[in-house]
Amino acid sequence: MNNIIYSTEELAFYYVVAENKSAESVLGNDVLRELSVYLAEVVKNNAKIDWTLKESVRAELRVRVKRTLRKLGYPPDLQKLATETVLKQAELVASHWTQPQST
User: Higher pLDDT residue, 54 or 47?
Assistant: First the structure.
């Protein structure tokens, strides 16, 4: 992963999209990093208190992920699995953003 500093969220998504070794070899680390940064940004911007329960929000996020995977050349035969894995990871990563802050 070169000497690039990742945020916790970016790193979580990097491992999801790089999990597929053929994607890693086809796209390379730079594109996978770009993808992970974008995914972290999209999830953070769309995380609402009940976003995991609202199908409309999940559907919008799913479309954004699919478009991004396609745009960046992620292997087509693995896009569906990657999209679902990204959504699962998004739920885990975003859960701390939607928790009430203790004062």
Answer: 54
